[in-house]
Amino acid sequence: MSEEVLLARVKALEEEVERLKAQLKVERDGAKTSASLQTESLKHQEGEENRSKQKKRGAERPFDFSVHPRRHVALRLAYLGWQYQGFAVQENTDNTVEARLFEALLKTKLIQDRQTSSYHRCGRTDKGVSAFSQVISIDLRSTQYGGGLGVTVPAGVEVKGKASAEELPYVKILNRVLPQDIRILQWAPVESGFSARFDCQSRTYRYYFPRGDLDVDLMAEAAKQYEGTHDFRNICKMDVGNGVLQFQRTILSASIQPAQLNPTGPNDPHQLYVFQVKGLAFLYHQVRCMMALLLLIGQKLEAPEIIEQLLDVEKNPRKPQYSMAMDYPLVLYDCHFEGVNWRNETEEENHVLSSLHQHWVQNAVKTQVLLGMIQGLQKTTTEMTSLQCWLMEGSRQRKYQPLLDRPRCESLESRIQHFVKRGRLEQEEGENGEETTVFRGKRSKHSHLTTTNQIQEQNHGAETHD
């Protein structure tokens, strides 16, 4: 083959390669364009779906509280406090009843925030304490554009056709999101100035205990000494650091009676009794200290007169050191208000009853299992283990030391001076030249006590705290 023919052949092959390259490029570009279009289509579709979901959730438009009426209401709730660190919100834990309650209120959009909700609580139960009738007052979102008791209608909102709407089912709404051991029982519309704390007429506590070998008649007799207005500084935990400087409290009634309508027998050591005390307000750990003294009297370790002696702060200005009664048998049983018309939601009442029955069945069966074991062991022994000792905190002394012979706690005056030095309290000169003490300490971010007058109202029993 000649050189000219070879060159022509090479040139033809090069042209063919270039043609194939061009064809391949066109095909690749077409594939990229198709894939790009498909990707863009998928992205657009996903974006539309996301926008649709967000629109359904209301994520693009925050809930507008300003167009809804607000209604000042009272809520009555029950809770089993055994697993909680108390009712009131605390800075060092969120395991409180109040924390769960506000989570539910915020989740259901019944309030915008705590600070603007005009919130007050009737009682401040401590760790492990339960309640059957705790009451709070609060502003909740409402449907009543036409106004009504406790209703505030926003200005400039169109109300035509909205005035006849039924009120929101507050009990049902909240119980659907609250834990099973916290239940709203009733609600009531109240005046805008109503306060669950300051308008409460009385609080009633119950403390349950087994008879054991206690002298319940002697305890009932001793309990009557609590009635009346007394200085309870020796029968409480003095909360001077939080501004509680006045310890006079009024007890309207105090009694001990069988907890069951049909007692199993007059001498049954497993029969449950209840110490019921009704007062205007209570001090920190007051009821548990009252019960501790009654348990000592029931064991005949102390005479009934010990109560009268400890209430005499002139003769006994300093509290003897003694343990309180345990927390779990204590229940805030009732908070009484005048003129409050509670509203029931029948369906929710049935749900609450069903839930309580479930709790009761579980615990009643466990109780009977334990009782069966006890009775089985008692068939082989005549010695009866004392039951009442298990309701006192701390260990029991081998040799009992009478209360008035024990070491004493600091006096009220000493505690005041301690917190004055720390800057929590300040002493000022009163109108008559007398020295007065006022609370200046750091308050919790959740506290609503912002004035000296409010502190004084607290000291005079505006809020129960046990």
UniProtKB/TrEMBL annotation:
Q: Name one GO cellular component term.
A: nucleus
Residue ranges of domain Pseudouridine synthase I TruA alpha/beta in the record: 222-338
Q: Biological process GO terms, please? A: mRNA pseudouridine synthesis; tRNA pseudouridine synthesis
Query: What GO molecular function terms would the record report?
Result: pseudouridine synthase activity; RNA binding
Q: Which domain of life is it from?
A: Eukaryota
Alphabetically ordered keywords of this record: Isomerase, tRNA processing
Bias regions of kind Basic and acidic residues — which residues?
A: 41-63
Residue ranges, annotated region (Disordered): 24-63, 423-466
Polar residues bias: start-end ranges: 449-459
What family is this?
A: Belongs to the tRNA pseudouridine synthase TruA family.
Task: Identify this protein by name.
Answer: Pseudouridylate synthase 3
